[in-house]
Structures are given as structure tokens and as C-alpha cells.
Amino acid sequence: MLSKRLSVAAATIAASLSCSAETTSPSLATSTAEMRSMLPPMVTPQESGTAFRFFAVSPVNARVVWASAAGGTYALTTDGGKTWSSRQVPGAETLQFRDVEGVSDKVAYLMSAGEGEANRIYKTEDGGNHWTLQAQASADPRNFWDCFAFWTPRRAILMLDSIVGRFPLRHTTNGGNDRWPFVKDPPTAQPGEGAFAASGTCAATQGESNAWLATGAAAVARVLRSRDGGKTWRSAVTPIQPQGTPVSGNVSVDFRDARRGIVGGGDVVDSATPQLNVARSRDGGETWKLTTPTPFPGAVYGLTYTRNHHADNDDEGDDDNDGSDGTLRRVVATGPSGAAWTENEGNTWNLLPGIANCWAVGFGDERTGWLVCGAGRIFRLDFH
């Protein structure tokens, strides 16, 4: 069902969018650093080699980046985006790869979403020359896979839409060689509840065992959280608005440590109306408060802290002081109507001019990231 909702959203969106300072004193040094942190990033268009819509992006570092697209297509760069190679997975030409996890320049996972058997996970260990089918849903049309998130290159959680009051989550503990079995005690779900396979960021992991899942399409929008690698789950309602309809709720979630996180969403079809589309947490996802909305209207499809997610550690975020380093709190958010960045987790936002119809964003380090968009477009972001 959510695939159809996003197809409606894509059609609606396509119709409405074309696509010299002295540093001798400490105070001056601090002021200069703060001024630099407020400078907008340099935005560089890059040639992807495909015209298919990109759905997700996974930077391994500032040079190696994987992206996934429609048409069974993926893209890889190993030189920071100077050159991209886009190819199709043999036998998967009709699939939509809604999520991707890059591990190295050789190893990556692709997740497709659709109805029944169109939900699959592939893995390559030779840079995309060969792909192994690791998991595939049954023909039951209720099956719909949304996204996955990894703690390590071999441990991950897979988010699926609910079926009969439960989220039939799957996971792997050995790099997919176990065929991604179902978790033993899946979390309960509201009627119709699921996630939006818009950017590959409906799930987030942190440290060795923390995980969060962003949900919508039900009476209330929730974030599910686990502290034990997905064995048990608790939930919290978020204040994202609109919510409570089949096409609204939480879409994207990220955490920078065990306590501090951010969630984005809204109505995924209405790209013209300003929405209360971002909220943040200071207690690991137990409670959520609205931030200032993004300067672009409509829903947030993807957001991320500007950091290398592969470099996660077990920071519990016990210090009540959020710190003065803006890079820790910097977030980039994107959606059909635009993209923006904040240095303070949503207190204030800055629009990225000329960017629209980009569904996902990811960073290889605190300064270097990529937006992936419709019509095969990719933009590199370089913060100062």
C-alpha cells in the first residue's frame, strides 16, 4: 500500500516541480570559527550516468559512495563523485531499490520494495560485478519492505509494513548469510501502520544495540525504539503534523548518540503546504518536541546528521551540554519541495537554493555529503 502512496506522491510532485581576518585573540578565533560554520555548503552537480530516480544514498567515506534507484539500478563512485558508474542488477531490471548500504568499494547491500516477491535484498562483494540474492518476500501482496539499518557490516535490522497487528521485522547477524530471518518477538502495530520507503532512512541504528523505527500511515505517528538489538521494543508518539492519514506521519529518523535524535515527515503527497515536519528528542526517543519547520513546504523525506554513520560508537550522550561544535548538531533535510540545513538541530534553518525533488541525503564525513534526486541527479555538498 505504501508503494502506491509514494507512487501517487511522485506523480503529484512531478507535475508541480520542474525539476582577511586576524586570529591572534581567542575571541576572534572563536568568532571566525562560528562564522565559518554558518557559511552555506558548496553545491556541485555530478553526472550519475542514469536517468532513473534515486531513492537512497550510502556514503562509506568522502570518496566511496553507493546510491540506489529505480529500474534495478545502482550507482557507485570511488573518487568522491568525480566519476560515477551506474549499472543494473541482472534479473532485477523492474525493481525499485529503495535502500542501499555501502560497506566498502567492494561490498554493498541493496533492498528493493514493492508487492510480494518484488521485496528483495541483494549483496555484492566485488564492487557490483556480481550480486547474490540473500532474501526475498513471499508472494503475499501484503508484504512491503521499507528500509534497513546496520550496526556493523554484518548486523542489521529490516523494517517492513505491519501485517495483522505486528511488524514482521527481519534481521541478520552474519552479513545476510542467514537469509535475514524474522525477529522472534516483533513489535505490535496500529491498524494500517507502516513506514515510507522514500529515502532508506525510516530506520536508524547507533552503537552496538540501539535502533529506532519511524512509522506513519496510522492514527498516530510513532518512533519505535530498541536498546537490545531489536529483541524488545518501546514506542513514543511524535508531534509531526500532518499525521493520522494513510499518506502522513514520520518518514525519516536519525540519532547522533544514544540520546539525541531527530525525525522528519509530514504529508508525503502535499508538497505545497508548510508543515510541522521536524521534531527532536533528548532522551533517546522517549519524548519528542517540534523544532522550527524547514523553510521548504511539504514533507521531509530524508534527513541526517552530517557525520559518517559507519564511524558510530557507543556514546551514550550523558553530558547535558549539547556542546558548541556546530558540526555535531548540523542536520541536512530534504524533500520534494526543497532541501535545507541547520547548525542547531532545527532551531533555525537555511534553504539550499535551487534544490528540489531530492528524496535522500547522506554524509561521508562531517563536511562531505550527497543529495540524490529524481531524473538521475546527484549533488555533492561540501561544508566549510
Which features would summarize this protein structure in a list?
384 residues; 4-stranded antiparallel β-sheet; Methylamine Dehydrogenase, Chain H
Give a topology summary.
Elements: H1 2-16, H2 26-37, E1 42-46, E2 54-59, E3 65-69, E4 73-77, E5 85-88, E6 96-102, E7 108-113, E8 120-124, E9 132-136, E10 145-152, E11 155-160, E12 170-172, E13 203-206, E14 210-214, E15 222-226, E16 234-237, E17 248-255, E18 261-267, E19 278-281, E20 289-290, E21 302-305, H3 326-329, E22 331-335, E23 338-342, E24 350-351, E25 358-363, E26 368-373, E27 378-382
Q: Output the number of helix runs.
A: 3
Profile the largest sheet.
Answer: 4 strands, antiparallel
The fraction of residues assigned to DSSP E strands is 35-45%
Task: Indicate the mean pLDDT.
Answer: 91
The best one-word shape is globular
Rg, Cα atoms, Å: 19 Å
Question: What can you see in these coordinates?
Answer:
The chain has 384 residues and is mainly beta. The protein has one domain (2-18, 45-382): Methylamine Dehydrogenase, Chain H. It is built from three helices and 27 strands. It has helices at 2-16, 26-37, 326-329; strands spanning 42-46, 54-59, 65-69, 73-77, 85-88, 96-102, 108-113, 120-124, 132-136, 145-152, 155-160, 170-172, 203-206, 210-214, 222-226, 234-237, 248-255, 261-267, 278-281, 289-290, 302-305, 331-335, 338-342, 350-351, 358-363, 368-373, 378-382. The protein starts with a helix and ends with a strand. 55% of the residues are buried.
